[in-house]
Amino acid sequence: MRALVLAAGMGERLRPLTDVTPKPMLELGGHTLIHYPLTMLRRGGITEVAINVHHLASVIQDGLGDGSQLGLRITYAPEPVLLGTGGPLNGLHDFLAGDTFVMANSDTILDLDLRAMIAFHRAHAAVATIALFNPANLDYYSRLEIDAAQRLRRMRLLMRRDPLQYDDYPSNLDDAVAATLSPFMYCGVIVAEPAVLDLVPPKPPWSLMPGLFAPMVARAQPVFGYVHTGYFRTMDDLKSYDALKAEFASSPSPKII
Q1: pLDDT digits (tens, 9 = 90+) for 24-37
Q2: Are 33 and 22 spatial neighbours (Cβ–Cβ below 8 Å)?
């Protein structure tokens, strides 16, 4: 199996730090942010990883090298122009097409058992399985809604927060069905089959959820949610970064490295 780690973003909400250091290379708990998802992948048995890079790309490439120090083989996918969160799949079709593959965010820290998620994915004959989490502030995120069998039945992509407004996939889900669903947020990891690559929009830039996975859910394709109940943190801005640094400094981090 192979994986793609998304690391090309500008990290605008973390300026001025990201003016000189790309977000994936910011330090937390004695490691760079990207070290955490890379370690998760290695623990899950994945050693061949592509990383898309754009903003301060050389800092990432120089810091990680060929990946051998992490037990990985890293292939870099430079983006002279940003391709969106989904666009890297266009250029990496051949790299990912041979087997089930994984996508992971470079700024998410979680103790996900990737082997268990892959086993769940295969047991349910899913074309894609999306890691989900139940946060205290769900209204801050898009809502991914699963039924009792953990199949994704609706994605409510957040358009605005005040007032709350969503773009629903499908747009016409029966109210009685909707009432039975459980909402979660996406927590940064996706397992997918090569067939997904045949469904990507032909030309970047495009975004993963509205461009690919939400339309799949709307067409009732077998997309499932894998509910993660363990440790999960993501870093959105300077305030959350400071909070995470304080958390890691005050107490031992979970076994995520």
Answers
A1: 999 998 899 999 99
A2: no
CA distance 66 to 73: 6
Q: What percent of the chain has pLDDT over 70?
A: 98
What are 231's two structure tokens?
A: 């440790």
- Could you check whether the bond before residue 201 is cis, i.e. omega within 30 degrees of 0? no
Q: Answer whether 90's CB lies under 8 Å from 205's CB.
A: no
Q: What is the pLDDT of residues 38-96, one digit of tens each?
A: 999 999 999 999 999 999 999 999 999 999 999 999 999 999 999 999 999 999 999 99
List the structure tokens of 115. 């082997």
Beta strand 152-161 with 27-28 is unpaired
Is residue 121 within 8 Å of 224, Cβ to Cβ?
A: yes
Q: Is 39 exposed, middle or buried (0-12, 13-18, 19+ CB in 10 A)?
A: middle
Both structure tokens of 164: 């709350």
Tell me the DSSP string of 119-178: HHHHHTT-SEEEEEE--TTGGGS-EEEE-TT-BEEEEEEEEEETTEEEEEESTT--HHHH
Model confidence over 107-130: pLDDT tens digits?
999 999 999 999 999 999 999 999
How far apart (Å, rounded) are the C-alpha atoms in residues 107 and 24? 6
Q: Report the C-alpha gap between 56 and 25 in whole angstroms.
A: 10
> What SS3 state is found at 24?
helix
Instruction: Judge whether 75 and 47 are in contact, CB under 8 Å.
Output: no
CA 236 from chain center: how many Å? 14
Q: How many helices (H) and strands (E) does the chain have?
A: 9, 14
| Class (C level, CATH) for 2-250 | alpha beta
